[in-house]
Design brief:
Blueprint (H helix, E strand, L loop, with lengths): L14 E2 L5 H8 L4 E6 L13 H17 L2 E2 L23 H17 L4 E6 L4 H8 L7 E6 L20 H10 L16 H9 L20 H20 L7
Parallel strand pairs: 1-3, 2-3, 2-4, 4-5
Helix pairs in contact: 2-5, 2-7, 3-4, 5-7
Length: 250
């Protein structure tokens, strides 16, 4: 006689795919065929933040949204397409756009074959080639939704910036709220770019300058309270647009 293992309940704990048996996954799929896929990066965010900053942010959002809405959460894709830097930073690891694209195509095809019908690719890295790798994933019948948290307006929550940069007031505030033990604020260095330089930087036509500490923006203005406000904004807007919006007509 086959014994069943209780499922984690919604609004209590994340429904992490890697912690479940196939039978548990199938039971949830029968009710909700969605899968949250957090996609991170392994790159410098300045001398004051961990290399996995973007990954930590995406994972926390994925866990909280999974717990709140009872949606399955895939293992994290830890590597993304990094911005090229003029000098090396120990520990950085990047993949090419086509590599990330092919890997996601393969993963989603595998999950689609087992019954998933909607994929929510969640990332905290707005580099254009990285975003393009996610946005061009192809499935047979399943819906793919790419969520770039930094596409959400946040200017009203900032003091020294009007938008997200990199290892900046935004990233540093979020980490001070989510994982303060990983932040070395005494090492933070402000480094600003012009709007045109930021545009070229995001598109991949401008390297992170050698004179930069590896971060861009004003991390010195970061605070846990600001991080809490930013995180709540991201979670609220993603909930409204992805999880609370009416399902599209078939």
């Amino acid at each position: 006689m086959e014994m069943t293992v209780p499922l984690p309940t919604a609004a209590s704990s994340p429904r992490r795919l890697k912690e479940m048996t196939p039978a548990q996954v199938a039971a949830i799929l029968a009710e909700d065929p969605r899968l949250i896929v957090p996609v991170g990066t392994c790159e410098q965010h300045g001398p004051h933040l961990p290399i996995g900053t973007a990954t930590i942010i995406a994972e926390r959002l994925a866990d909280d949204l999974s717990a709140e809405y009872g949606v399955l959460r895939a293992p994290t894709v830890e590597y993304g397409v990094n911005v090229v830097t003029e000098r090396a930073f120990a520990g950085n690891a990047s993949v090419r756009k086509k590599t990330l694209h092919r890997m996601l195509n393969d993963l989603l095809a595998s999950w689609e074959a087992t019954g998933f019908r909607e994929f929510i690719l969640l990332t905290a890295h707005e580099h254009d080639p990285h975003q393009e790798a996610l946005a061009t994933v192809i499935t047979s019948v399943a819906r793919v939704r790419v969520v770039d948290i930094y596409a959400i307006p946040i200017a009203d929550l900032l003091e020294g910036q009007t938008e997200h940069m990199h290892g900046d007031e935004v990233d540093t505030s979020l980490l001070l709220f989510l994982a303060p033990e990983l932040v070395h604020l005494d090492l933070a260095q402000d480094y600003m770019m012009s709007r045109e330089s930021m545009r070229r930087y995001r598109r991949g036509s401008l390297r992170v300058p050698k004179g930069s500490p590896g971060s861009i923006g004003r991390p010195s203005l970061a605070s846990p309270a600001k991080g809490k406000a930013l995180y709540e904004r991201f979670r609220e807007k993603i909930s409204e647009r992805i999880f609370l919006a009416p399902a599209p007509e078939a």
